[in-house]
Amino acid sequence: MTLIRELDTGTPIRVSDTIVTLTIDGQSVTVPRGTSVMAAAATIGTQVPKLCATDSLEPFGSCRLCIVQIEGRRGYPASCTTPAEEGLVVHTQNADIAKRRRGVMELYISDHPLNCLTCSANGDCELQDMAGKVGLREVRYGYDGANHLAAPTDESNPYFTFEASKCIACSRCVRACEDIQGTFALTMEGRGFASKISAGGTDFMGSECVSCGACVQACPTATLNEKSVIALGTPEYSVITTCAYCGVGCSFKAEMKGETVVRMVPYKDGKANAGHSCVKGRFAFGYATHRDRKTKPMIRAAITDPWQEVSWEQAIAHAASEFKRIQGQYGRDSVGGITSSRCTNEETFLVQKLIRGAFGNNNVDTCARVCHSPTGYGLSATLGTSAGTQDFASVDHSDVILVIGANPTDGHPVFASRMKRRLRAGARLIVADPRRIDLVRSPHIEAQHHLPLLPGTNVALLNAMAHVVVTEGLIAEDYVRERCDLQEFESWARFIALEKNSPEATEALTGVPAAEVRAAARLFATGGNAAIYYGLGVTEHSQGTTTVMAMANLAMATGNIGKLGAGVNPLRGQNNVQGACDMGSFPHELTGYRHVSDDAAREMFESFWGVPISADPGLRIPNMLDDAVEGTFKALYIQGEDIAQSDPDTQHVTAGLRAMECIVVQDIFLNETAKYAHVFLPGSSFLEKDGTFTNAERRINRVRKVMSPLGGLADWEATVALSNALGFPMSYSHPSEIMDEIARLTPSFAGVSYAKLEAEGSLQWPCNEAAPLGTPMMHVDRFVRGKGRFMLTEFVPTEERTGALFPLILTTGRILSQYNVGAQTRRTENSRWHEEDMLDIHPFDAESRGVQDGDLVALESRSGDIALRARISERMQPGVVYTTFHHAKTGANVITTDFSDWATNCPEYKVTAVQVRRTNRPSDWQARFFDEDISLTRIAAPLDAAE
Ligand code: SF4
Ligand code: SF4
Ligand code: SF4
Ligand code: FES
Questions:
Q1: CB of 11 shorter than 6 A to ligand 4
Q2: With CB atoms counted within 10 Å of each terminal CB, which end of the chain scores lower, N or C?
């Protein structure tokens, strides 16, 4: 295994319909027009020396190391800023050029510490490489004059240092922060010799920096360097894998020393991220080897007993005998399981296979239940498939972007950077969100329209926009006539044209001025390619599914599906939530979204697995918990999910868990749900196994093992062992064989194999005979369901109402540095950015309650109460408060209710009526939490130690 070093062409290779042919060092080379001479040379293997250029950035032309000679032209042009032109004859090397380059290098090195041998970047430094490449042998100027060698080092960022004495002022970092990340945290201060990089006049930690690592990646010296490299030394080999955090699915090179990850470097050929990253994937991987990892299987008779460490064989045998006993005693349907959107497709597939094959029921559900299940239902009903319509690159062609119920800069940061690039290039933006999220106004970006709707009124707002489209004659008539069901369209158009759906009539519901809605709707319908991007602010409502349908209606009515720059695009939360849904994790669906009542689909599985499959949909997570409280549901196998923290109405969830007789938790940490478990199986992190994740653009990416499972078994191996112990044999020697089975049983995956993934890098489903290399964009000539179906989207207010007792609306979300329940990110330095969950409250609401910034406040709803600190924020609108749910001890879901989406039971996390008042103590639930954190997690001394 070797360290993968991707080719750096110095400047981007352009895309153009026109090509030019030139001669470089006697070789003919043909490139798209607009490509630089430097990049053209790189394509034939000629690396022109360079320092200020790198191919992720536009050329800058400051270092003058890349000079060349061009026949017929005077002087020595910089090859990075000189475009390749037809017929140019270029010389990249001769004695004259070499002398000038040495002169340039001499100047750089005369102001650079000469400690290469002990430098953390020794062997991985472009300055060092270039000094060698240009043949620098001496520095005539000495080191006594004015220099920057005593410049201080900024260690404030937890993951990288800024060693200013090594800076060569090439400004690659500044440009990376601007062009790639779009944060504009860095500037080049001063001029000439006095030039220096500044993080806005403060240190990195105190600046606008979001720690994405783009500047570190771009820096050609050790000035910006990972602390892990400084601590561990330069890596020895790399393995390409996929981030295990969000649904963007960034590709990374895990750069390794033995079985230790030295750093995660974003992979340039990664189709989802093209070499960019965010703070989580780039730096927050330390949780994988955190001391809290539980690596021994454990069992206990009652949750009040201490855990007893046992062998894998004992744990699996105990779990299997409990499941058998319970099914014997209470019936086949008294047990079930939950698959994980954190685990691989292959692992998820096996868990649902175990439930269907070994348990003999369809009681399988997944955490998508609580996030994007309305996406599946809504898009399937209108368009015919349960997934987003575009790839990420499509946004490069958008003219208008509607972001609704999503906060991409925090939730999907790498995609947000791409979107921001498009916005800086001129696309126009509509943000529909109760909060003033970053996108509303950030450097060089300002939304044309911010529609600050009241939580719970998405459908009313989208209906109002559609009303404008219909009543002002903005329908894409040809498109609708050709591609949509006309009867359904006409009935929808009549409904949407009703006065009750007008912006004026809905203003009282949404709180958004009618004129703003009208202007936004006109822009969406007439501004060119219009794309919708949405998140959990759409789905986690009692009308989540209706909102998804309303977006599909709007997109179809304006002709914005099936072409570049358009589409209805869910920003999926977890790394493999798309995959978990694809893999048959829902109680009513087999893989590829085929209903369990579909005889032909069931027959495929039955004949291959050799067991009957129930034609009746099984229980959803909320039903399992309800039935547990009622006493009819008794046992649960939970892989990589923490429903005690993530699901709404915590007290109801824990009541359900407490009522069961056997809960098997398979996880990397002893999570909140494990407090109620009887068997604990050590899980494996994404670094410890092979498999695939499917991202928000339906892209199947490989996950590759870089270290042995700390607990001894990868998750899929544990599931195989459990299934075998239950008497339903499974036998696989590698996850590739599981994928072969998935492909055999799932038409949309029929063309997927590990061999093809190796060859192509990634594949977007459907991938089958009709689309052997996958499908970047869906619904191109016709909708998957045939004719696009407009659905009636009557606005029905949530039953969760504000009133005198609970006058405010609480909405929840997440922030950049933390991830969901925080199990991973809380165990990394990311906690430096978010040590606790806070309550954001508008100054007006704070003042009327006597609440000051930083005060401890009680947050009360009809479900329960918690205490947390208040942060006064003008991002909020009066009447709406906001918090995150990253810390178990906060208990944000103690507050949320069990109202849910009418179609899918997706919980209504985004609307809870609450009251806020000052307090001086934790809530009763929080006090109990701290007690149970000790009493329900005790581990007995190993038997041999006790003897
Ligand atoms: S880490 Fe990212 S945000 Fe921070 S300065 Fe570097 S490029 Fe900018
Ligand atoms: S920190 Fe690195 S990238 Fe930035 S100017 Fe200095 S040497 Fe160049
Ligand atoms: S954007 Fe998402 S997938 Fe990419 S590095 Fe960040 S968390 Fe990982
Ligand atoms: S690499 Fe061309 S001027 Fe620096």
A1: no
A2: C
Ligand 3 centre distance from Cα of residue 266 (Å): 10
**Sites in the chain below the pLDDT cut of 70:** 141-146, 943-947
Which one, of 449, 464, 542, lies nearest residue 506 by Cα?
Answer: 464
pLDDT at 142: 67
Closest C-alpha among 825, 571, 575, 820 to residue 692? 575
67 membership: H or E segment, kind and range? none
Ligand 4 centroid, distance to 63 Cα (angstroms)? 5
Pocket test for ligand 4, best of 47, 64, 108, 168 (most atoms within 8 A of CB): 64
CA of 178 to the centre of ligand 1 (A): 9
CA–CA distances in Å: residue 176 to residues 171, 265, 348, 396, 425? 8, 15, 38, 18, 16
- Phi and psi for 484 in degrees, rounded to 5? -115, 160
Strands (E), 85-132: 89-91
pLDDT tens profile 423-435: 999 999 999 999 9
Q: Which ligand is nearest to the CA of 10?
A: 4
Residue nearest to atom 2 of ligand 3 (CA): 246
**b/e sequence 426-452, b meaning 16+ C-beta within 10 Å:** ebbbbbbbbbbbbbbebeebebbbbbb
CA 154 – ligand 2 centroid, Å: 13
What is the CA(375)–ligand 3 centre distance, in A? 21
Question: How does DSSP assign 5-44, residue by residue?
Answer: -----SSPPP--S-EEEEEETTEEEEEETT-BHHHHHHHT
Both ends of the chain: CA-CA distance in Å? 46
pLDDT confidence of residue 145: 66
Radius of gyration for the chain, computed over Cα atoms and rounded to the nearest angstrom: 29
- Closest-lying ligand to the alpha carbon of 413? 3
Q: Is the dihedral of CA 55, 61, 64, 69 positive or negative?
A: positive
Q: Is 678 in the pocket of ligand 4 (CB under 6 A)?
A: no
**Tally of helices (H runs) and strands (E runs) in the chain:** 31, 37
Ligand 1 close to Cβ of residue 209 (< 6 A): yes
Query: Is ligand 3 within 6 A of the CB of residue 414?
Result: yes
pLDDT digit string, tens, across residues 505-538: 999 999 999 999 999 999 999 999 999 999 988 8
Atom of ligand 3 nearest to the CA of 413: 1
**Pocket, ligand 2, Cβ cutoff 6 A:** 167-173, 197, 218-221, 223-224
> What pLDDT, on the 0 to 100 scale, is given for residue 166?
92
* Distance in Å, CA 36 to ligand 4 centroid: 11
Question: Is 65 touching ligand 4 by the criterion CB < 6 Å?
Answer: yes
Distance of CA 298 to the CA centre of its chain: 32
Secondary structure E strands in 520-591: 530-534, 568-570, 589-590
**Would you tell me how many other CB atoms lie within 10 Å of the CB of residue 668?**
27
Tokens of 484: 């949509």
What span, in angstroms and rounded, lies between the C-alpha atoms of 723 and 720?
A: 5
Say what the pLDDT of residue 449 is: 98
CA nearest neighbour of 423 among 452, 403, 453: 403
Which of 210, 241, 250 to probe ligand 3 with, by most ligand atoms within 8 A of CB?
A: 250
At 415, list the tokens. Answer: 């995609």
Atom of ligand 3 at shortest range from CA of 282: 5
Sheet holding 530-534, edge to edge: 449-451, 428-432, 400-404, 530-534, 568-570
Atom 3 of ligand 2, residue of closest alpha carbon = 219
Residue 501: CA count within 13 A, CB half-sphere: 25
Residue with tokens 């008794």: 634
Which CA distances in Å does 120 have to 128, 158, 283? 12, 17, 18
What CA–CA distance (Å, rounded) separates 591 from 571? 21
Q: Return the pLDDT at 911.
A: 87
- 57 touches ligand 4 (CB under 6 Å): no
